[in-house]
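Quick start: load a record and inspect it. Here is Type II toxin-antitoxin system HicB family antitoxin:
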Amino acid sequence: MKQFKIIIEKHPDGYVAYPIGVVGAIVGQGDTNEEALSDVKSAIATYIEVFGKEILEDTSPVEIFIDEAAIAV
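Running the structure step on this input writes:
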């Protein structure tokens, strides 16, 4: 069993979820927070099945920071 830190974003058309610290494009989505979390868990399991659990070694960050930045557009 391995724990993953998952970011879940709420957008106008649903939710998007993705794990932190995993190399590759792993994304889940759904109409609810729970659906997005379930979908990303399935995506992670498939990723491990395809690439092997070795791909996950030393991928978890020790600390995670969320910040904001203003950028002129």
